[in-house]
Structure prediction request, 211 residues.
Amino acid sequence: MNEPARIDVEPDPVPIVLILAATLRRAARTPRLAAAISHAKGNVALRSTVDPQAATMRFGNGGVTVVRGVSDDADVVISADVNKMADEKPPKPKVTGVARHLKLALTVSKLLEPPHGTWQEEAQRFFTFATAHPGIPKSMRVVCTDDGSELTLGETPAEYELHGSEHALLNVFCGNSVIGQDLLDGKIFAVGKLAHLAELTGRSLAWMLGG
Prediction:
């Protein structure tokens, strides 16, 4: 049996480091992407174009270590609006170093967009994580506004409801965005108590940062 891909972070990591590591761990659930992490060599930096956030993924020795900032020895640098990377049609990032490190750049592009299940599968995974924390609603009804499909997590009747497009629901339940922020931005809609929203937002943020 193959050893799981090693994914480490620097001591006292900043949020972007934790978010990148969480994304890589989701990618590593797919065997071929786990193998890609184990075999990749080189350093890839992600730099925000809208704020000072930046991190470098250092691949080698059978795994990857994520650290803050753009390392001086970065082989590939991705410059992107990190606030819009999860949009349905995100702005195209600027990538430097591709000509010299094409294989590494292609590998990381796949790792940063890991496969996911259906929104229902991802909702179940998130809800299992969230309900281990006190204050979370014991049941939640989720409705996809694209086709009217719905799922009730926990026992009926639901204590809380979330409504949104398939893309918006996947973003929240995969950990690409935070429930409270998406509500403020009008990407999803909710019915329920403010206290439940506060707890769900906290769990959503923890999910984004890797639990």
